[in-house]
Amino acid sequence: MAADLNLEWICSLPRSWTYGITRGGRVFFINEEAKSTTWLHPVTGEAVVTGHRRQSTDLPTGWEEAYTFEGARYYINCIS
């Protein structure tokens, strides 16, 4: 399950956690104490839905690049 980014998500971060946003618009969470990052909110364990699908000019016509909640890249054939 995933959730939309909102103020409640930001306010519920534990003290040692912050968040960042990739150039592609994906939200990730940073544990400053452990010096680690994750796609999943540290309290809820859910990824934030930000519409992290994008069309790329490097892909054949009809294909889009997307990411799983764990951050793995995959491709979608939008024509078939």
From TrEMBL:
Database matches in PROSITE patterns: WW_DOMAIN_1, WW_DOMAIN_2
Gene3D superfamilies: 2.20.70.10
Residue ranges constituting the WW domain according to the UniProt record: 11-44, 57-80
InterPro entries cross-referenced by the UniProt entry: WW_dom, WW_dom_sf
Protein name listed in UniProt: Pleckstrin homology domain-containing family A member 5 isoform X26
UniProt organism field: Equus przewalskii (Przewalski's horse)
Name of the coding gene: PLEKHA5
